[in-house]
Design brief:
The protein has helices spanning 4-13, 26-30, 77-99, 117-120, and strands at 20-23, 39-42, 47-48, 59-70, 104-116, 122-133. Strands 1, 2, 3, 4, 5 and 6 form a 6-stranded mixed sheet that branches. The relative contact order is 0.22. The termini are close together. It contains 4 helices and 6 strands; from the N terminus they run H-E-H-E-E-E-H-E-H-E. By secondary structure, it is an alpha+beta fold. It is 31% helix and 34% strand. It is elongated, with a radius of gyration of 16 Å.
Length: 137
C-alpha cells in the first residue's frame, strides 16, 4: 500500500529550493503565516488501497495543493493577477517534477485561482489531482 510519508516527501522534493512547504489542516497553515514565501500547502488526503476497489489497479490519492504568496487587501487587481500568475507557474513546475517521477502517474489535474485567502493575506493557485502510486512508496 502507498505510504503517507512518502507521498508527502514526493511533493516536498518536487518543489524548487527555497520554497516553504507545509502539510496539514487549514488551521496549521493559518498558524504558519510568518516565514518565507512562496508557501506550498498540502491538505490532508485519503489513500485508496487498490485491494478495496475491484476496478483499481494501483493505490491512489486525490491531493489538494495550494501555492501561496503574500497579498494584501489594498493591492491592485494587476498586482493580484501577477501573484496568481506567478503561483500558477510554480504549480506547473511542481506538476512537471511530479510527472518525472517514474513511480507515480497524475490524472484529473484541475487548477483554481485563489484570491485573498487566509484572512486576506495570501493569493495564489490551488490544484487538485489524482496521484496513482504505480510502484509502492
Amino acid at each position: 500500500m502507498a505510504n503517507f510519508k512518502n507521498i508527502v516527501e514526493i511533493c516536498r522534493e518536487s518543489l524548487p529550493d527555497g520554497v516553504r512547504f507545509i502539510h496539514g489542516r487549514l488551521m496549521d497553515f493559518s498558524n504558519s503565516y510568518t516565514g518565507t514565501y512562496p508557501l506550498v500547502t498540502l491538505l490532508p488526503f485519503t489513500i485508496q488501497d487498490a485491494r478495496s476497489t475491484p476496478d483499481a489497479t494501483f493505490d491512489f490519492a486525490t491531493l489538494v495543493v495550494g501555492f501561496w504568496k503574500e497579498d494584501s487587501p489594498d493591492s491592485t487587481p494587476e498586482q493580484r493577477e501577477n501573484i496568481i500568475s506567478e503561483m500558477d507557474l510554480l504549480s506547473d513546475f511542481f506538476i512537471d517534477n511530479l510527472e518525472d517521477n517514474l513511480g507515480i502517474r497524475l490524472t484529473n489535474i484541475q487548477k483554481e485561482p485563489q484570491y485573498l485567502m487566509f484572512q486576506g493575506t495570501l493569493s495564489g493557485m490551488a490544484i487538485q489531482f489524482r496521484i496513482d502510486i504505480i510502484r509502492p512508496c
